[in-house]
Specification:
Elements: E1 2-6, E2 17-21, H1 31-45, E3 48-52, E4 55-57, H2 61-65, H3 76-79, E5 85-86, H4 102-132, H5 136-165, E6 169-170, H6 181-190, H7 203-218, E7 227-232, E8 235-238, E9 244-250, H8 265-278, E10 282-286, H9 302-322, E11 328-330, E12 339-341, E13 348-352, H10 356-364, E14 370-373, E15 388-389, E16 392-393, E17 395-399, H11 417-434, E18 442-445, H12 454-462, E19 473-475, H13 480-484, H14 497-503, H15 539-559, E20 563-566, H16 569-582
Parallel strand pairs: 9-10, 9-20, 10-13, 13-14, 14-17, 17-18, 19-20
Antiparallel strand pairs: 1-2, 1-3, 4-7, 5-6, 7-8, 11-12, 15-16
Length: 585
């Protein structure tokens, strides 16, 4: 469902008409392309979309109850009100404001004709005066332009009149607004506090009362029969149904745990395939670190780090699809010639950036599906325009943060931590929806660690349920607040990941008196090597963060977080799969 603002056959440009349109389809496979084509055509021919609801998989109440005769019919007396009008003779209220009756529109029509006649008279006089000082060529051009516009208007007016002639009765608001849960469900997303005179109550009151009455009468929760959906690329996902993994790929030199490891496009693309095979639904690629106190190298552009990786991945995936033999892909150009197993579904690609020009280039070359904007589209609000291109829309992650990497750790004062952040994200969502971005393509990220103290990040997780009505995306992987939760012990760690690598080289004796991970290590070092981590990093700290992160993965499963952004895909997938198996009905 969408709210549009526009004018059909209106000469008064300072007055706008508002309408609510309901879109639906029974084609679940192609529903996204069908509905978004409808949104595109609506904006092209009718008016600007200024609000939209979530997508829902709905079931009429008579199907829920298995009673085909339950479908209530509204009588003519019930839907008669001052806001409705007949359309006999093609003079009804089609194309008018949602709060105007048929007679009101007839007056508007007459006023419009008088206004047009008056303007045409003035334009005619101005035109004659103007022609005295113009060349005949200019006159011909002017007449041609007016003729073209007139022809276009006549064609548009003819279409409108045809629609009006086909309407026997126009009921405003919809006759079944009070009696259809699916209608109230969508309206409650967009206009919960709206009160139409013909309805007598706010939309939210009607919606809440309908839910309560139905549950009290039939002992059935209608929400469970009408499932909210969100969209990534062209796929629909059930809200709070499954926790999906977003694999992190940092292709910069500065990221706090893996900076510099994947700046080579060949190595980066190999890692992308690896994460897909390990169970990542989405790959999130970032070319600029947002870690505290990082200063980007001005001689290395984000564009030059990201685009080669995305282009190479596109080439390799296309090659895989073209040469699909035995469900393997040659590592040539990606690895070292070895065979790699793969999943049949192409991963959804997200780009972690606030850079308008970079995202624009990615969109133009069809390289990405999601914008992950840590500024919630405030760094450059114009980036919102790139989220829709004709019939194609892009999903977007809006994250809460304050300041920049140098100041955010000092900007941690909140009046109400939980609701200050929630209200901010809702305001950003409203901004995007007002600019025509479908509500079901917008995800929230509370920004753990960004302008939050360690305890504040933990508190946000404790209250993650306040986002139960929204698609939620959280990134906690390897962050400092995780180890902060753990009890301190006597272990020390003076080594680095490079030390562990040296200790586990091919020349090392695996039967050494002090093997890796041994509790008998008298030096107090944890001589294990962490995958995909910079060699100069503290292994003990990051081992705690990784293991603690798996606890958050488990917590996310139980709290029904929609997407979790992690470095350690294999380990996280194992946790989620085991939990899913345990809870399998």
């Amino acid at each position: 469902m969408a709210v549009i603002e526009g004018s059909i056959n209106s000469e008064e440009r300072n007055k706008r008409n508002i309408a609510v349109l309901n879109f639906g389809t029974n084609d679940k496979t192609n529903c996204v392309s069908i509905l978004e084509t409808g949104l595109y055509l609506t904006e092209k021919y009718i008016g600007k979309i200024i609000n939209s609801s979530y997508l829902y998989e709905t079931q009429p109440e008579y199907i829920v109850l298995g009673e085909p005769n339950l479908d209530r019919r509204v009588t003519e007396e019930e839907f008669q009100n001052d806001h409705n009008g007949g359309s006999s003779g093609g003079s009804g209220s089609s194309g008018g404001s949602g709060s105007s009756g048929g007679s009101g529109n007839s007056r508007n029509s007459r006023n419009s004709r008088n206004s047009r006649n008056s303007r045409n008279s003035r334009n005619s006089r101005n035109s004659r005066n103007s022609r005295n000082s113009r060349s005949s060529r200019s006159s011909r051009s002017s007449r041609s332009s007016r003729s073209s516009r007139s022809s276009g208007n006549k064609k548009k007016n003819k279409m409108v009149e045809h629609v009006k002639d086909s309407i026997n009765f126009l009921c405003i608001p919809h006759a079944y607004t009070k009696y259809r849960y699916s209608i109230l469900l969508c309206l409650n997303d967009m206009l919960p506090n709206y009160k139409h005179a013909a309805l007598g109550e706010t939309i939210n009151t009607l919606f809440t009362n309908y839910e309560y009455t139905f549950k009290y009468t039939h002992n059935i929760n209608l929400k469970e029969c009408n499932k909210r959906l969100y969209v990534l690329r062209d796929k629909i996902y059930y809200l709070k149904k499954k926790t999906h993994i977003v694999g992190i790929l940092n292709v910069n030199y500065d990221s706090f745990s893996d900076g510099g490891l994947f700046v080579n496009p060949t190595i980066a693309v190999k890692r992308m395939f690896e994460m897909v095979n390990q169970g990542a639904t989405v790959i999130d690629i970032g070319g600029e670190s947002s870690a505290p106190y990082v200063v980007p190298n001005p001689s290395i552009s984000e564009r030059d780090l990201v685009l080669p990786v995305l282009k190479l991945f596109q080439e390799e995936w296309n090659k895989k699809e073209k040469n699909n033999v035995g469900k393997t892909i040659s590592g040539e150009g990606v690895a070292t010639g070895e065979k790699m197993h793969y999943t049949a579904t192409k991963p959804i690609i997200s780009i972690d950036t606030v850079n308008y020009d970079l995202f624009k280039e990615c969109v133009e070359q069809n390289l990405v599906d999601i914008l992950n904007d840590i500024s919630a589209c405030t760094n450059n609000p114009e980036i919102v325009r790139l989220l829709k291109r004709k019939t194609k829309y892009y999903s977007v992650v809006l994250m809460h943060k304050r300041g920049n990497p140098h100041t955010m750790d000092k900007m941690t004062q909140y009046n109400d931590l939980i609701y200050d952040i929630k209200n901010y994200l809702e305001e950003r969502l409203n901004f995007l929806v007002l600019n025509g971005i479908p509500r079901y393509r917008i995800l929230f990220d509370v920004g753990l660690g960004f302008a939050k103290k360690h305890d504040q990040s933990v508190k946000l997780l404790q209250h993650i349920h306040v986002y139960d009505d929204y698609p939620l995306f959280i990134g906690y992987s390897r962050k400092r607040f995780i180890s902060h939760c753990m009890d301190q012990n006597g272990l020390t760690n003076t080594g680095t990941n490079e030390d562990a690598g040296a200790g586990t080289s091919k020349d090392a004796d695996i039967m050494d008196d002090h093997p890796c991970n041994s509790s008998d290590d008298q030096q107090g070092k944890w001589l294990f090597q962490l995958n995909h981590m910079r060699g100069d990093k503290d292994r003990l700290l990051f081992h705690k963060n990784i293991c603690g992160g798996l606890a958050i993965a488990s917590y996310s499963f139980y709290k029904k977080v929609d997407l979790i952004r992690v470095h350690d895909v294999l380990e996280t997938k194992a946790v989620l799969d085991v939990l899913a198996k345990i809870h399998q009905c």
